[in-house]
Specification:
- Chain B: It comes from Actinacidiphila alni.
- Chain B: Belongs to the binding-protein-dependent transport system permease family.
- Chain B: InterPro entries: ABC_transp_perm/SBD (IPR051204), MetI-like (IPR000515), MetI-like_sf (IPR035906).
- The complex is a heterotrimer of chains A (406), B (223) and C (255).
- Chain A has 17 helices and 16 strands.
- Chain A has two domains: 238 residues, P-loop containing nucleotide triphosphate hydrolases (Rossmann fold); 167 residues, CBS-domain, CATH 3.10.580.
- With 406 residues, chain A is α/β, with parallel strands linked by helices.
- Chain B has a single domain, classed as MetI-like fold (Orthogonal Bundle), CATH 1.10.3720.10.
- Chain B is mostly helical.
- Chain B starts with a helix and ends with a helix.
- Chain B is elongated.
- By secondary structure, chain C is mostly helical.
- The chains are: A alpha/beta (406), B mainly alpha (223), C mainly alpha (255).
- Chains in contact: A-B, A-C, B-C.
- Chains A and C meet through helix 1 of A and loops of C.
Chain lengths: 406, 223, 255
């Protein structure tokens, strides 16, 4: 555990970068420091490995003051990843990664073997080992940066805006990779970013800092979204935090119906029977394997099975993986679906059921009642509920038809 | 009269190829003076420039010093040193040559270290490299092409200016120029000048080779 | 004091006269060199293949010892000031061409595109955008050329007293008046430093947009805003202040 205990950084010119900051960073999890520029988040990170020396307070690493050991020994016990990777351009990829093990006195072969293992771990092809940094893309360079930081298997990883300089698509991939690696390794990661979405996506705990180096709120991301401590945090989180919070609610409890689902090889009689039974104006057509093909319109359904041609189908949109993806994904699918219904599939992409926007809205209310009450019953929880309710008018038109189906 | 004829006559005269006044001997002397001057300049200039660059201090002092060193007239300094020190060996000739060469070495090596990308340096410090390791394992390898360019430009100036050593009775290719002037045999002057220019080209070639060997492909191709 | 400043009569000049002569012999070649270097450099920028051979020729020319150059020219121009000034012009040219080419080339393609988009023709673009942005690089070359020229004039004493202050060196030895030699060396060095300082001042006046040393921007890096001693090669250091410079130059040009 890293304890940051009323730490202050005051520069000789009187500027205060970090002001009486206290944080407890738990082991084996990702703690994100987030805030606008000038909030002291990078300074805080750099004080942990003493790249910046604090001027007040203390930092304890597993109970021992970080000043208790020589500065370079401290730094070698922590991985350090920076924005532009900071690779050594004169060394090959494998030698870049082997840097710290070599410093710790490993022989060359062992260090290189370790480096190759790590390349595999961070998703770098082995053929890149002998390349030089300039031959790699920005995303690949950043993977090397992460591998280099992990090389000596340090318990702590300090990451200073590691994904800020890559394009959004690569950033998303790298974020997912980091979560995957973290699931395998369980490091204590301190992660600095100015991007609140990145903080919410990656952080087990998120510390929001405000300009002047003061802590605004320190909470798990779900709580941050549901109960921002003050107007600053609320403003920093942005307008759609209610929707974003839905990412933390599982779709597992969502009520599904299989009534309007019908396979493509069904007979006309079956179609007519199913149309009548479901009471829905649309039927979801699946292939023989159970994978969704599309929605039949009311006209097509009226014509019966003979007219079930795939070309006439309405697109079913992106389905969500039931139980794996969140209520946010389910809601998104429903909103984007031309019928207003979301399609739930299993891991294999086979339809397990469909659900309406109304059902999802009810599930959201239910989840909020359960989770929001546990948090603080503040205005923000109410706001989230209001936001969920606000979904309703959008679906009012098809409500009559849906309510029958549900 | 034709410069090319002079060159041809000079190099085809077999008398110019033998003994202590022959081309090989003079060339060797010239190389010796140049190497010695370059070595002394590098021993002075490199450590100061590199460490100042690493520490990020003393830039203005170095600029002032190198401006002063450059301002010293080589030939005047040579005469002054000869008068003050007497014609004792190569010392009076070395002083102006070193004064000439130390400025580019000092300034370029300082600037080379300063212009290294700060990101890898930050990463190196963050992973616990000592200050010396950062300089030798990160900064110098990345700055090497620029450091070598400073040494090369110093070397070319030294090779060209080492001719003045002949003015105080020393050897080297300057002998042909000084003697040719005294004897009004311009063939010698042109021949000597050609040899000096040729030596400068060889110097460039040597530095090219050193760069190929010493600079990492990651740095060379990465620019 | 007289030992230092009593000029031997054979020099036919007072101390101040020698200084004037020295400056003329040293600086006129730099001026000529600049006048020739500008079009040569522009050609090298325009036709990229030209630069490499030009660099080779200039490097070889630069390596020819000044004395040899003087001696060869005596046959053509006699033991005159011209004989001293021609090689110095060549040396200046050699230092200035790469300086100008690197300077002009360091103007970013973005800046050039912006200038074109604003409706600049090629000539306007060169005069109002490229050249102003290249001023620091050109002045770095000018300073080197001026200082080395001032130093080299002294060698002219060996070809019949054409070395201005350098003539004191020969006289000092001939009459065994060491103080004259000291006067020569010290005065030449001071002239070089003075002219160098003057060029720095002119450059500062010409480039009000250039960042002054010391002020650093950006967090914690500490490596920016340094005094740049070298501007000749296109190092990242030389490029760094460029965007601001480019913007300012463009704004000036638009006005």
């Amino acid at each position: 555990m890293i304890q940051i205990d009323s730490v202050t950084k005051r520069y000789p010119d009187g500027t205060v970068a970090v002001d009486e900051l206290s944080l407890e960073i738990p082991d084996g999890s990702i703690t994100v420091l987030v805030g606008p520029s000038g909030c002291g988040k990078t300074t805080t990170l750099r004080m942990i490995n003493r790249m910046v020396e604090l001027t007040g307070g203390r930092i304890l690493l597993d109970g021992a003051d970080i000043h208790a050991q020589p500065v370079n020994a401290l730094r070698r016990s922590m991985g350090y990843v920076i924005q532009n990777a900071g690779l050594f351009q004169h060394r090959t990829i494998v030698d870049n990664i082997a840097t710290v093990p070599r410093m710790l006195g490993w022989d060359r072969d062992r260090a290189r073997k370790r480096a190759r293992d790590l390349m595999d771990r961070v998703g770098l092809d082995a053929s890149l080992a002998k390349r030089y940094p300039y031959q790699l893309s920005g995303g690949q360079q950043q993977r090397v940066g992460v591998a280099r930081a992990l090389a000596a298997d340090p318990p702590v990883l300090l990451m200073d805006e590691p994904f800020s300089a890559v394009d959004p698509i690569v950033r998303k991939v790298l974020q997912a990779e980091l979560l995957r690696i973290q699931a395998e390794l369980g490091k204590t990661i301190v992660f600095v970013t100015h991007d609140i979405d990145e903080a919410i996506k990656l952080g087990d705990m998120v510390a929001v800092l405000r300009t002047g180096g003061k802590l605004a709120q320190y909470a798990p991301p779900d709580e941050l979204l549901s109960a921002p401590a003050d107007a600053f945090v609320e403003d920093f989180l942005g307008t759609d935090r209610g929707i974003r919070r839905l990412s933390f609610f599982t779709s597992a409890g969502l009520e599904l119906t299989t009534a309007p689902i019908i396979a493509v090889d069904s007979s006309a009689a079956q179609v007519a029977e199913r149309t009548k039974a479901s009471g829905a104006p649309y039927l979801l057509l699946t292939d023989t394997d159970g994978k969704p093909l599309g929605w039949t319109g009311p006209a097509a359904a009226a014509k019966g099975g003979a007219a079930l041609s795939v070309a006439e189908l309405l697109p079913h949109g992106r389905p969500f993986v039931f139980g794996k993806e969140s209520l946010r994904d389910a809601l998104d699918c429903a909103v984007l679906s031309p019928t207003g219904w979301a399609v739930a599939v299993d891991d294999g992409g086979r339809v397990v059921g469909v659900t309406s926007q109304t059902t999802i809205a009810e599930a959201i209310r239910g989840a909020h009642a359960e989770r929001g009450a546990a948090g603080s019953p503040s205005a923000s929880a109410k706001a989230a509920a209001a936001e969920a309710a606000a979904v309703d008018p959008a679906i009012a038109e098809s409500k009559a038809a849906e309510s029958k189906a549900v | 009269m034709n410069v090319l004829n002079f060159i041809n006559d000079f190099f085809s005269d077999s008398a110019n190829w033998h003994g202590t006044t022959g081309i090989p001997h003079r060339l060797l002397e010239h190389v010796e003076y140049s190497l010695l001057a370059l070595l002394i300049s590098a021993v002075i200039g490199l450590p100061i420039g590199l460490f100042a660059g690493h520490a990020g201090r003393g830039g203005y002092a170095l600029a002032a010093f190198s401006t002063a060193a450059r301002a010293l007239p080589s030939f005047g300094l040579l005469v002054l040193m000869t008068v003050w020190l007497g014609e004792i060996g190569t010392t009076p000739a070395m002083i102006p040559l070193v004064a000439l060469a130390v400025a580019p070495i000092l300034v370029t090596s300082y600037e080379a270290i300063r212009s290294v990308d700060p990101a890898p340096v930050d990463a190196a410090r963050g992973m616990g490299m000592s200050s010396a390791a950062v300089l030798f394992q990160v900064e110098i390898p990345a700055a090497l092409p620029l450091i070598l360019s400073g040494l090369r430009s110093a070397a070319i100036q030294v090779v060209s200016t080492a001719t003045i050593a002949a003015y105080i009775g020393l050897g080297g290719l300057g002998r042909y120029i000084i003697d040719g002037l005294a004897q009004h045999t311009y063939g010698k002057v042109v021949g000597g000048a050609t040899l000096v220019a040729g030596l400068a080209i060889v110097t460039i070639g040597v530095f090219y080779l050193v760069e190929r060997l010493a600079v990492s492909p990651g740095v060379r191709r990465g620019r | 004091m007289n030992a230092y400043f009593d000029m031997p009569s054979d020099l036919q000049h007072s101390y101040l006269g020698l200084i004037g002569l020295h400056l003329r012999e040293a600086l006129l070649p730099v001026l000529f060199g600049l006048v020739v270097a500008l079009p040569v450099a522009q050609l090298c920028v325009r036709f990229k293949w030209l630069y490499s051979p030009v660099l080779w020729v200039t490097t070889v020319l630069y390596a020819i010892p000044s004395l040899a150059f003087f001696v060869v020219l005596i046959d053509y121009t006699g033991a005159t000031e011209t004989t001293v000034m021609i090689p110095l012009t060549v040396y200046s040219l050699v230092l200035l061409v790469p300086a100008i080419v690197d300077g002009v080339r360091s103007v970013s393609p973005d800046t050039m595109a912006a200038a074109t988009a604003m409706g600049f023709g090629p000539v306007q673009r060169y005069l109002k955008v490229q050249l102003p942005i290249a001023v620091p690089a050109i002045f770095a070359g000018l300073r080197l050329a001026a200082v080395s020229s001032i130093s080299l004039v002294s060698v002219g004493t060996l070809i019949g007293n054409q070395g201005a202050l350098g003539n004191l060196l020969a006289d000092g030895q001939f009459y065994h008046r060491t103080p004259l030699i000291v006067t020569s060396v010290v005065t030449t060095a001071l002239l070089a430093i003075l002219v160098d300082g003057l060029l720095v001042l002119i450059q500062t006046l010409l480039t009000p947009w250039a960042p002054r040393g010391g002020k650093s921007a950006g967090k914690g890096a500490g490596k920016s805003g340094r005094p740049s001693l070298l501007r000749r090669r296109t190092t990242s250091a030389a490029r760094e202040p460029e965007p601001a410079a480019a913007r300012a130059a463009l704004e000036d040009a638009v006005r």
